[in-house]
Amino acid sequence: MAAAPPEAPAGAAAARRLARGCWSAFWDYETPKVIVSIKVHSATCHSDSDCVAGELDMLGNGLRTGRCVPYYFGTSKTCEVSGWCPVEDGASVSQFLGKMAPNFTILIKNSIHYPKFQFSKGNLASRKDDYLKRCTFDHVSDPYCPIFKLGFIVEQAGENFTELAHRGGVIGAIINWDCDLDLSASECNPKYSFRRLDPKHVPASSGYNFRFAKYYKINGTTTRTLIKAYGIRIDVIVHGQAGKFSLIPTIINLATALTSIGVGSFLCDWILLTFMNKNKVYSHKKFDKVCTPRQPTSSWPVTLALALGQAPPQPSPLSGQEGWQGAKQGPGIWPPRPCPVSALSEQMVAAPASGLAQQDSTPADPRGLAQL
What we know:
Blueprint: H1 12-19, E1 23-35, E2 56-57, E3 62-70, E4 77-85, E5 105-107, E6 111-114, E7 119-122, E8 147-149, H2 150-156, H3 161-167, E9 169-180, E10 191-196, E11 209-218, E12 221-230, E13 232-243, H4 247-260, H5 263-275, H6 279-286, E14 290-291, H7 300-307, E15 337-338, H8 353-361
Parallel strand pairs: 9-13
Antiparallel strand pairs: 1-4, 1-12, 2-3, 3-4, 5-8, 6-7, 9-10, 11-12, 14-15
């Protein structure tokens, strides 16, 4: 019985023709032994010794019986296995439903809820008439009619419908809710986009199909119809965000931004010195007031030299802004002396900037101090 192709029950050919839609069907009936397809390379054999009884081949459709039997046609031989017959060999080619399939429609119902703002909304129009029975989705005229044609979804995903219907595929329907809740609820609308999720350029993982079977008895023989379905699977992906104005987070974010760029301290000083009643007290605490020197002989090089018991440096005869050490030392400025407490005034006298720069860059070395 296993050496020859089994006879299918009456009506099997008609069932095959009816079953060819967006899927392929195989009419099988139970038999204890079946010949493995010659397309399985490991199933070919020359004698019974090539077929180990009880061995399982992942592509061989069942356990091997240990017999090497002739194939249905030709001179080749294959190992016999226990299983359903005939085995699936991919002979039935998927025949999609032509021009009808792109017009199939899909209804995608979705609703969102933001508990922090107590806001909820759905993607269906709140109308009581038969609007949903006669509409299809359109970005401009019917944004709240989530009834999509299959051809429209495939087109928006940038795919070819004929190729996708033959091999199957997975398309993601992405619904995005980005809402500004300071505006009216009518401004919070869903935005749809579609893209293919399965890698179509990878043969091992592209496409989409699955198998299922229907079991029954015909004339006492257990029979099944094995269906390998090719189709388009739609995965709905929803994401979004909502926001609303709040004073406290705004102040915190503003203060953080000002502090990060160093404006905070300047702004606080300006407010205290301008608008506070005790701005003069804050000014005295904030700034050290200085006075210009009364005479050059009281400068710190002379004072430091006298304190160390050495002769003070002789002032240079140069005039103008020349220092007491001569032209090689560069222009010198007599350092300011602190004002006495009684002499504090409301106006601060700033030391010349050029003198401070010279004092920092080339400090004078009194004669004899380098030897300490």
